[in-house]
Amino acid sequence: MNDYTNSGALLERALKSIPLASQTFSKSKIQYPMGASPLFLQRGKGSQVWDVDGNQYTDFVSALLCNLLGYADDEVTDAVCNQIQQGVSFSLAHPLEMEVAEKLVKMIPCAEKVRFGKNGSDATTGAVRLARAYTGRELVLVCGYHGWQDWYIGSTTRQLGVPKSTQNLTKVFKYNDIDSLNDLVQEYSGEIAAIIMEPMNVDYPLEGYLQAVKGIAVKEDSVLIFDETITGCRFAKGGAQEYFGVTPDLATVGKGLANGFPLSAIVGKAEIMDLMEDIFYSSTFAGEVASLAAAKVVLDKVDQLNVPAVLADTGGYLLERLNVLIAELECNHFLKTSGHPSWSFLHISGTGQYTDFEIKTLFMQEMLKRGILTLGTHCISYSHTKENIDQLLQVYKDVIYILKDALDTNSLREQLTCEVLKPLFKLR
Question: Is residue 162 domain-shared with residue 292, that is, in the same domain?
Answer without folding.
Answer: yes
